[in-house]
Amino acid sequence: ARQRGWVAAALTFDPHPAQVVAPERAPLMLSSLEERCLLMREEGIEQVLILPFDRELAALSPEAFARNILRDKLDARAVLVGQNFRFGYQQAGDSQTLAALGERLGFLTEVLPPVRVRGRAVSSSEIRRLIQAGAVAAACRLLERPYSLSGEVIPGRGIGSTVTVPTLNMDPPPKLLPAPGVYITRTASLPEEQRRPSITNVGYRPTFGAGRLTIETFLLETFSARPNAIRVEFLRRVREERKFADAAALREQILRDIHRARVFFRRLRRWAGRAPV
Fold it and tell me: Backbone phi, then psi, for 159, in 5-degree steps?
């Protein structure tokens, strides 16, 4: 784009098209709209075009979408899509359709090959499957970043500070959640972006009979002040969530989990120190 004096832009929809045309099959999001925009900016995208998706837009034929949106409104010079790209009413158009329309309407079309990591094709469906299974380390490799959840810090029930270990608690955000369990994580205070090693439980606290899913994070190193909001980055799963005989047994297990997390971060620091600059 820069070589030709064009602007590198990305087109995204909000809400997700499936939430309009088939809400019962709509996937949970891997990132919020704001997060997507920040990630695309980090990759060199200069403009993010957010197109509100509604029934009227869903009813456009492939030709009408290419003509009215891509050419007339966006003045697209080149459009890059994946091999499994579908568009238009009832997904009637594909990448070949777009290429043919582009020849008529005056824009180039480039179909990108699938991205593969360690022989595995990268797709949102595969990443969702891994996260839902708790395989956050594998998801991290495909994303090339840790999967994360962000939200305000909320008051807990006071059990951690008096019975087990003190935690920062967060309500589940409207995103895909990792499978219930204990995870080695990295926690950032927001908006300061101070980052600390941590361990996080995603689950229902069965030892205490709680039925609502919670996200509870113990910091291995404390912040200078209690944050109002945090981002929790999931690095590796430690174990599944399970019910213990009593709070003392749970606390003993938490301390073992914390030890495993400390070992993980010590090894990570040693590896980072040996990595070439």
Answer: -70, -45
pLDDT at 277: 39
Place of tokens 């689950």: 203
Where do runs of H (alpha helix) occur along 133-179?
136-143, 159-162
Is the C-alpha dihedral spanning 233, 238, 240, 243 positive or negative? Answer: negative
Global pTM reads 0.87
Contacts 24+ apart (CB under 8 A), 75-79: 76/107, 77/4, 77/6, 77/107, 77/108, 78/1, 78/6, 78/107, 78/108, 78/109, 78/110, 79/107, 79/108, 79/109, 79/110
pLDDT digits (tens, 9 = 90+) for 167-224: 999 999 989 999 999 999 999 999 989 999 999 999 988 777 767 889 999 999 999 8
Domains, the chain, in order of start with CATH, read 2-114 (3.40.50.620), 145-274 (2.40.30.30)
- What dihedral angle (degrees, nearest 10) is formed by the CA atoms of 245, 256, 179, 240? -50
- In eight-state DSSP terms, residue 173 is P
Mean pLDDT over each residue of the chain, to the nearest integer: 91
DSSP letter at 249? H
Mean per-residue pLDDT, 219-244: 94
Name the residue type at position 253: Q
Q: For residue range 20-73, list pLDDT tens digits in order.
A: 999 999 999 999 999 999 999 999 999 999 999 999 999 999 999 999 999 999
